[in-house]
């Protein structure tokens, strides 16, 4: 199946707006790439109003600071969802994902914790992992403050955030908690292997190309040997047995499709309750394009329904 008409129209309009002399982001330095990515933020619009929104500063393992933003949709949220945003560990931040976070909170009934983990190349692997782990443990320790009671805890994210979510879910297993109700992995990075078939398919070279993915890895984990570590490439973990139940979403036309689906298969083989859905006609990044692509709304509704079903199963 080809890219759907809405995606094709978006890519055409974006190319025309950029002009024929536009430099690809993977040929930019990180500062310019961040500015280019942030230029898309306005099109996402505003998210729904929340019962309250709080910002907190957390201290990382190295003593450095990073922020989390908590969107609380109702007085008594049914769960807490720690959301780790995409951007290749280099670009984007919680401001760019604010609308998505608000929608996720409203549709799930959960307090959503957006994590502004620190970025490469200024702070390379494993700082993003450590910040994500710090934020997850903080959310668990402050759950009564966030939700008014002990409620189910979720972790999830898209792309690089999906990578970080899978990694902290493994850490939670290995450290006897925090207890996770579910991990939501949206077109996650799971392996630094550019030989997979989805990297070679011409129709997959859209917003995230093979060259761009190599650029991200070069900034985040420049030492190629380190990329084989499970906390960089979770698909290489010795065992996935005992991790939290998973929802894995992939895009049909995404360079990351095959590694995401390989992770879903390994989860199933390890006996982990796992649901996988490949979204037809979609490129990498579609989930985060709220109020832009129809598939983003469809996927958000699907994720929210999955979370609500898990909450119901847990009696929340």
Kindly provide the name of the CATH class: Alpha Beta
- pLDDT average, as an integer? 97
Distance between the termini: 39 Å
Order of helices and strands: HHEEEHEHHEHEHHEHEH
**DSSP helix fraction:** 25-40%
What is the strand tally?
Answer: 8
Strand order of the biggest β-sheet: 1-2-4-3-5-6-7-8
Largest sheet: 8 strands, mixed
CATH fold naming? Rossmann fold
Overall form:
globular
**Over all CA atoms, what is the radius of gyration?**
18 Å
Uncertain segments: none
Strand content: 15-25%
Count up the helices: 10
Content-based structural category:
alpha/beta
Number of individual domains: 1
| Assigned CATH superfamily | Alpha/Beta hydrolase fold, catalytic domain
Which architecture does the CATH hierarchy give at level 2? 3-Layer(aba) Sandwich
Report on the architecture of this protein.
By secondary structure, the chain is α/β, with parallel strands linked by helices. It has one domain (5-313): Rossmann fold (3-Layer(aba) Sandwich). The protein has helices at residues 5-18, 30-38, 98-108, 127-141, 143-147, 160-174, 197-200, 210-220, 257-269, 294-313, and strands at residues 52-59, 65-72, 79-84, 110-115, 153-158, 182-186, 246-253, 274-283. The chain has an eight-stranded mixed β-sheet with strand order 1-2-4-3-5-6-7-8, sandwiched between helices. The N and C termini lie far apart (39 Å).
Which short descriptors sum up this protein?
316 residues
Brief overview, please?
With 316 residues, this protein is α/β, with parallel strands linked by helices. The protein has a single domain, classed as Rossmann fold, CATH 3.40.50.1820. The protein has ten helices and eight strands.
